[in-house]
Structure formats: structure tokens, C-alpha cells
Design brief:
alpha+beta; three-stranded antiparallel sheet; 8 helices; 15% strand; elongated
Length: 403
């Protein structure tokens, strides 16, 4: 069969081009460390590799979110730590203020330091982050959360909690509101005498708190009033008292002296009226406030020379209980932040482990086996050199060489 000269040339040229492509492909695989340069190199493996790439990219994004969230939580925790340290210093001053040797000069000095502490705390609760957002304002991040009206600090933020996605189905709260950390601090439970003839105050707080929890009623206000009936002792004997609740049930009885306090359920009750009269006292409604106002009230007490004696002692107890409850709330909030940080650490470690496994799987699918790739390159270069040699001989096959 006769073969046309042009056909020989075309066949040789195609062989050279194919060999060049094979050499280029093998060389590219070695240089890029990629076995799958295009979908046609292995459609099934390429599909699996793309799915793994997606998982790795998602995990990387979740880890980036986690790092950002850890930084945010750490910033909040540092602020709360500073608040906590200031509260502890305020408590030390509160305890010192109870020293009977303190005069008005000492009280004013302590009031001045407490005022400085309150100013520091006011700055902390109104802290902004790097983006200019108020840290403790909830969703109202562009509004200063704590404002002072000349007498009290008011929280004008909200209780909105935002969350950040740090896993396929994991969302973690990334903010702390003023209501979470500083508001709704339970104040000391109090009692009040209902007339001038009776003076009642808390002497043993824990005992009174237990009585209060078991007996105070939000639904029936009258149930919070207790009657103290008195009578003169017969034949020169001691005076006696009887305490009854709103249902008339007797709760306690005993002897007393006018002007001398006696103890009842953690309360000290002092009667100044003559025997034979009936007095009453009422459990006060529970109150809540924020740490700034707790400080402010005691600062006013320290500066007021008219508040002394038992009234001063009760104000000091109010302050110490309020500071203790504020500190407890700060501790709980920092504990919540710490729990979130620990959860992020565990999740980040798990995601890193998954990424290592995924990258190994991706490497087995898409990366080059260097020994095979070098062998393929050698074969392709041999084929190319053979094609060059063949083309060189074919190009000389002409009758003009024999004329």
C-alpha cells in the first residue's frame, strides 16, 4: 500500500505534539505536586477532592471565627476582672468604715476613694471595642449603656445576645450585656417598723433571709405584716410580748423590757411604747439595683453626718451585702465566659484533628506519587526523543536525495 508523503509528515508531527504534551503534563505534576490537573485526569477522585476541599475551607473559617471569638471573650473577661478587683477594694473600705474610731474626716476620705472607684467602674461598663461598639450594650451597641442622671446610673442597653457560628451546627454567644453582668443585683432584705413605737432591724442576716424566703408573699402584701402585742407583767413581773402573723397564728412570745431589743428570726425588735399597746413590723419588698448605685448610696451615707449609730450600721450592712452580691454576679459572668472559652478550645482541637485527616485524604487523592511521576516523565521524554528521531528520518525520505 502506498503511503502519501504528507500523511507521513502529519503522523510524525502529531506524535511529537502528543509526546510534548505528555512531557509537559508530567513536568507540571512534579512542579505543582498535583496529580489531578483537570477533571479528565480522574473524575471520581476530582469530585471527592473538591468535597474535601470544601470541608477544609469551612473548618478553616470556623477556626478563624473561633479565634476571633476567643479574643472578644478575653477582652470582656479582662474588663470584668478589673471590675472584680475594684469591687474587692470597695468592700475593704466598707469593712473599714465600720471602725468605731472613724470620724467624719475618715468617712469623707473613704467616700472620696469610693467615688473614684465608682468612676473607674463607670468607665469600664461603658467600654468600647476596637470597632467603636459598646461592649455591654447588647444589640444597642452604638448607644452608651450606662447614663448618669445626676443621682443614679441607669442601664439603657438591652439584653440582646448575639451568637457566632464556630461549627457546622455550633453557635456560641459572643457578647455579655450589662444586665448579665451588672444589673439585677439583689439588695439586702430589710424590715421596717410600722410606727414610732417599734424599731426593727436585721441582726442575723442568714437567719432572717431564711425566714424571709419562707414567708414573704408577692401575691398578698398583708401577709408580710406581723403584729407585736404586749402586756404588763402581773404583780410586778416582767412585761411580755406575742408575735403573730396576718392569720393570727402565734409565732413567738417572751419577756421584754421597754427600750431593750429582743431577737426574733434574725431580727432585733425594740419597743419604746408602753406595755398593753400593739405594734407591727413589715417585711420589705425585695429590691435589685446595679453596682454603681450601690456604691453611690453608701458614698452619700459616709458624707452625711446625721447618719450614725444603728442607722449607720444598717447602711454599712446594706453596702457590704450589695457588694458581695455584685461580686458574686461578676464571678458567675466570668465563669460563663470561661466555659465558652473552654468549649472553643475543645472545638478548635477537634477541628484541627479533622483537618489533618482531611488533608491526608486529599493528598492521597490529588497529590503526586513522585516515583511514579518521575517514571512517567522519563517515559514521556523517551517517547518525545523517539518522535524527534523518527521525524528526522522521515523528513529525509525524498527522491531528490537519489537524483
Amino acid at each position: 500500500m502506498r503511503v502519501a508523503t504528507m500523511s507521513l509528515y502529519n503522523t510524525s508531527m502529531n506524535g511529537i505534539l502528543q509526546s510534548q504534551q505528555q512531557v509537559e503534563k508530567a513536568n507540571t505534576q512534579l512542579v505543582t505536586n498535583k496529580r489531578l490537573l483537570q477533571a479528565g485526569d480522574g473524575p471520581a477522585d476530582m469530585s471527592k477532592k473538591m468535597a474535601i476541599d470544601t470541608d477544609i475551607n469551612q473548618n478553616d473559617q470556623y477556626q478563624n471565627n473561633g479565634v476571633s471569638l476567643e479574643n472578644t471573650l478575653s477582652f470582656q473577661e479582662n474588663i470584668l476582672n478589673s471590675m472584680h478587683d475594684s469591687a474587692l477594694r470597695a468592700r475593704v473600705l466598707g469593712v473599714q468604715s465600720g471602725d468605731g474610731l472613724n470620724g467624719m474626716n475618715e468617712r469623707r476620705s473613704m467616700a472620696k476613694e469610693l467615688e473614684q472607684i465608682r468612676g473607674q467602674m463607670a468607665d469600664l461598663v461603658n467600654t468600647r471595642d476596637a470597632n467603636g461598639d459598646y461592649v455591654f450594650a447588647g444589640f444597642q451597641s452604638q448607644i452608651q449603656p450606662y447614663v448618669f442622671d445626676g443621682q443614679r446610673y441607669h442601664y439603657v442597653g438591652d439584653n440582646g445576645n448575639s451568637r457566632l457560628k464556630v461549627g457546622a451546627s455550633v453557635y456560641v454567644q459572643n457578647n455579655t450585656t450589662g444586665k448579665d453582668a451588672f444589673e439585677n443585683v439583689s439588695l439586702r432584705r430589710r424590715v421596717k417598723g410600722d410606727s414610732d413605737g417599734i424599731y426593727a432591724y436585721v441582726s442575723e442576716q442568714k437567719t432572717y433571709d431564711t425566714f424571709y424566703k419562707n414567708n414573704y408573699s408577692d401575691v398578698t402584701p398583708d401577709a408580710n405584716t406581723y403584729t407585736v402585742s404586749t402586756s404588763s407583767g402581773s404583780n410586778g413581773g416582767p412585761n411580755s410580748y406575742t408575735i403573730t402573723n396576718s392569720d393570727g397564728k402565734e409565732l413567738a412570745s417572751g419577756n421584754y423590757e421597754v427600750g431593750k431589743p429582743f431577737l426574733f428570726k434574725g431580727l432585733k425588735i425594740k419597743l419604746s411604747s408602753d406595755p398593753g399597746t400593739t405594734e407591727s413590723f413589715t417585711l420589705q419588698k425585695p429590691e435589685k439595683d446595679n453596682i454603681l448605685n450601690i456604691l453611690g448610696r453608701f458614698i452619700d451615707v459616709l458624707r452625711d453626718p446625721n447618719i450614725e449609730g444603728q442607722d449607720y450600721d444598717q447602711a454599712q450592712e446594706d453596702f457590704l451585702v450589695g457588694i458581695d452580691h455584685s461580686t458574686e454576679k461578676l464571678n458567675l459572668t466570668m465563669g460563663s465566659i470561661g466555659a465558652r472559652e473552654n468549649g472553643l478550645d475543645s472545638l478548635g482541637n477537634a477541628q484541627s484533628a479533622i483537618n489533618i485527616i482531611n488533608k491526608k485524604s486529599r493528598a492521597s487523592l490529588g497529590e503526586v506519587d513522585f516515583s511514579k511521576a518521575v517514571t512517567s516523565l522519563s517515559k514521556a521524554e523517551l517517547a518525545l526523543n523517539t518522535s524527534y528521531a523518527a521525524y528526522s528520518k522521515i523528513s529525509k525520505m525524498t527522491l531528490f536525495n537519489y537524483i
